[in-house]
Amino acid sequence: MKSKVKLGTGCVFLLSVVLLIGCRITPEPRITQRDHNPWVTGKEKVVGIVKLSADKELKLPAGFLQQVETDLINYLPTQGYSRVVAAEHYAKIAQQIIPENTQFYDAVTGRFNHELKQQLDNSVIAEYRHKYQADVLLSLHFAKAIAEYSGDKARWDSIEDKTALPPNFLLDSRKGTMPAISVHIDVHNLLTGERYNRVQGVQAILNWSAVYHIHPDDMPIHLQNLRIGIRQMTY
Q1: Does residue 34 lie within any of the structural domains?
Q2: Which CATH number do you get for residue 100?
Q3: CA distance linking residue 197 with residue 73, whole number of Å
Q4: What is the pTM for the complete model shown?
Q5: Total domain count for the chain?
Q6: pLDDT one digit per residue (tens) for the chain, 235 residues
Q7: Residue 94 is part of which domain span?
Q8: How far apart (Å, rounded) are the C-alpha atoms in residues 24 and 232?
């Protein structure tokens, strides 16, 4: 009789493992901390997207950054801004002003020439602002992060997401760290000179070897959370 019970328990365990492996775990990222930073004056009207980028090691859906940009271009005007300038325009001006062979590191000392970098950046911003009347510069970078998990919850960078297994699976209360994705949001208010920075979690990476680290079907929830993360830009 005992052997049958053990066999039955073993079958349930194997079935559970098969189900967990066979089914895609849908992330459920939830923002746990929001910023309340009233740094805008109400006079900002034009947002210029400076850069949208991601770590090369992240496996993102085709057109991921383009989807993010399109959503921002559609969303920010609903929050009081008159226009959002796509990132390609800033990149074009930068290419015109900064020589392609510009070296910022000294070949002998290895020292980074911050003065030259700042001078060229200021020239790009001045020309960009003159041409597009931008009041706010916005940059986003998606990067690998490390999340701490306990049971079925992973927490990092003001967000909470579920992990691959339910809590106390087979009486195992799991704790540790796992890979995740965060987005670095950088904003420069050209009217006041103030800068705003926020690092916000996107989702836990449940399987580093998976085809996608962010599945195309999960884009709506990520775009919604990103809107919440940049809501400090609104007034």
Answers
A1: no
A2: 3.40.50
A3: 20
A4: 0.84
A5: 1
A6: 444 444 444 434 433 443 444 466 788 999 998 877 667 888 999 999 999 999 999 999 999 999 999 999 999 999 889 999 999 999 999 999 988 888 878 788 889 888 888 899 999 999 999 999 999 999 999 999 999 998 889 999 999 998 865 554 455 567 889 999 999 999 999 999 999 899 999 999 988 999 999 999 999 999 999 999 888 776 6
A7: 39-232
A8: 33
